C-alpha cells in the first residue's frame, strides 16, 4: 500500500477529502497547490526538442531535483526523465509554493546546460492533483511505463532515469524517493522522515 515513513514504519498515504467544488473547474485550467494532496507534474522541453537525451543532461536534472527536494522540504514519490519531457510525483513543499519549486528547477537546469536567456522549457506545465490511492498508483505506473510505451527500452528497469529500480530493488539513486525502502533505511539509522516530522507538528503527512 502506498504510504510514508513514520519512525521507519511505512504507513498509508492519507488523501484528504476531495471537495466537490473542485469538480467545477477543469484540472488543466486551475491549480490547487495548497490542498495537501500529491501532485503529478509534467513539463516539456521547448517545442518538444530532445534536450534531455544525454547522460549529462539527465544526471544534471536529477541532481538539481534532489537539491530542490532538500531546499524546499519536499517529498518525491516518483519520477522519470524522458528525452523531451519530465514526469514527477511529489507532495506540496514545506518551504514555498510548488510553482516556485518548478520555476527554480527549470531555470537552474536551463542555465547549467548553457541555455540561460534561451528557450529550453515550455513556459507552462501540467499539474494534476492526486486525491486518491487509486490515482497515486495509476500515475506512478504511468511514470515508470513511459520509456517502455515510447519504445526506448524493453522493460522499465532498463531505463536508468526513473524511480522504478528504486521501487523494484531498493536501489539508491541521485534523488531520495519516499518509499518503503527509504523508511526501512531510516529505521536502521534512526533518521526521521518528513512525514514523521509533519505528524509531530500536527499537520497532514507527506501528501
Within the CATH hierarchy, at the fold level, what is the topology? Alpha-Beta Plaits
Low-confidence stretches: 4-12, 14-35, 198-207
Using the coordinates above, name the CATH class.
Answer: Alpha Beta
Number of helices: 6
What's the structural domain tally? 1
Reported CATH architecture: 2-Layer Sandwich
Trace the largest sheet across and list its strands. Answer: 4-5-3-6
What's the count of strands? 6
DSSP strand content: 15-25%
Please summarize the sheet with the most strands.
4 strands, antiparallel
State the distance separating the first and last CA atoms.
14 Å
Helix and strand composition category = alpha+beta
Average predicted local confidence, pLDDT: 81
How much helix is in the residues? 25-40%
Describe the structure.
The chain has one domain (32-197): Transposase IS200-like (Alpha-Beta Plaits, 2-Layer Sandwich). 35% of the residues lie in helices and 15% in strands. The chain contains six helices and six strands; from the N terminus they run βββαββαβαααα. The strands form two sheets. It has a four-stranded antiparallel β-sheet, sandwiched between helices. A two-stranded antiparallel sheet has the order 1-2. α1 runs antiparallel to α2 (98-112). The two termini are 14 Å apart.
